[in-house]
Specification:
Blueprint (H helix, E strand, L loop, with lengths): L1 H27 L5 H10 L7 H11 L6 H13 L13 H36 L4 H15 L2 H15 L18 H11 L1 H27 L2 H8 L4 H24 L8 H6 L5 H10 L3 H29 L7
Helix pairs in contact: 1-14, 2-3, 5-6, 5-9, 6-9, 7-9, 9-11, 10-11, 11-14
């Protein structure tokens, strides 16, 4: 196991290097550029230099006057020293801005992840144990809706019904207009109230695939020989399902759960933007629109690193869940 982990880590470093290079090349080829926008704004000021002069000066200041390969290795050298530069659009160090916004998305995603596991897996088991019943069809319909609905449509629908029509929630934002006048507990409840609809959006749109996956694997296990043998011995149905069948269903579910760990830090571009929640998804979207290469580079390389770690955790958890699995 130790040799396997070391080997996977070395391969992950190599993969991360090429992924970072591809991301940097794509970011340098974006049609929009924050530097061009600033140069255009400064050139329009009275008695200012021309647009071309400002553009050349800013490109030199941000090391954009070099080619993609020299520019990437310059960025990589700074990144190895944990210096990711200053965000062009937020005018603060990249790591500072990232730290300011990532934890809000982390809290939202942790709550979503817990609710997703607590709702999707039990419903998937129930659907499998009541195959072809009305309950199974109802759960399958809910799962299909969660998989099929676009996030922007479902979020807009929730806002229309619960914000515009019923007036139960605010249309957007993280805090209300009287937030500063509230005590600490009131401020907590105000933020929690604003996060209800975004969390509902994330949960409904995420439970569908896990629910279907659980149902499919549970049906496969329930039709196996050892389950039929357990029933033939007269074991109670609950013991057959939860001790024998469900335990083996966990093995493929580990892939889903392990692969979902990086998502705890990703936020949601569309959902956070629609609800104007200042999390990492909303911030990253704004940075990409404005051509903020330093922040976008850091964010996407960070996600790539989390994905590689999630894949490694998945492989290790296989051996934990199923003792028959051993990594040579």
């Amino acid at each position: 196991m130790k040799k396997y982990i070391i080997k996977r880590l070395l391969v992950s470093v190599l993969i991360l290097f090429f992924v970072a290079f591809c991301i940097y090349g794509l970011m340098r080829c974006l049609p929009s550029s924050y530097v061009e926008t600033i140069a255009r704004q400064k050139s329009m000021q009275p008695n200012s230099k021309s647009y071309e002069e400002w553009l050349a000066q800013l490109n030199a200041a941000y090391n954009l006057d070099k080619g993609i390969i020299p520019g990437f290795f310059g960025w990589l050298g700074n990144a190895l020293r944990l210096d990711f530069g200053d965000s062009w659009s937020w005018t603060v160090p990249v790591t500072q801005k990232f730290n300011d916004v990532v934890w809000l998305s982390f809290v939202i995603n942790v709550i979503t992840f817990i609710l997703e596991l607590g709702i999707a897996i039990p419903l998937g088991v129930v659907a499998a144990t009541h195959q072809y019943s009305r309950l199974d069809y109802t759960i399958s319909l809910i799962a299909l809706a969660g998989i099929s609905l676009p996030s922007f449509f479902f979020a807009s629908l929730l806002k229309l019904v619960f914000s515009v029509k019923l007036g139960w929630f605010e249309l957007y934002g993280l805090v209300g207009r009287y937030y500063n006048q509230l005590d600490a507990w009131g401020q907590f409840l105000d933020k929690a109230h604003h996060l209800v609809l975004p969390i509902v959006t994330f949960v409904v749109l995420s439970i569908g695939s896990l629910m279907r996956y659980t149902r499919t694997n549970m049906l496969e296990v329930l039709s196996s020989d050892y389950v039929r043998t357990a029933r033939a011995k007269g074991l109670p149905e609950n013991k057959v399902i939860f001790k024998h069948a469900f335990r083996n269903t966990l093995i493929p579910l580990v892939t889903i759960v392990g692969g979902s760990l990086p998502g705890l830090f990703t936020g949601g571009f569309i959902t956070e933007t629609l609800f104007a929640i200042p999390g990492i998804g909303y911030t990253s979207y704004q940075s990409m629109v404005q051509g903020d290469i330093p922040f976008s580079m850091f964010y996407m390389v960070f996600l790539s690193l989390l994905t590689l770690i999630g894949n490694l955790i998945t492989d290790i958890l296989y051996a934990v869940v199923d003792p028959r699995v051993r990594i040579a």
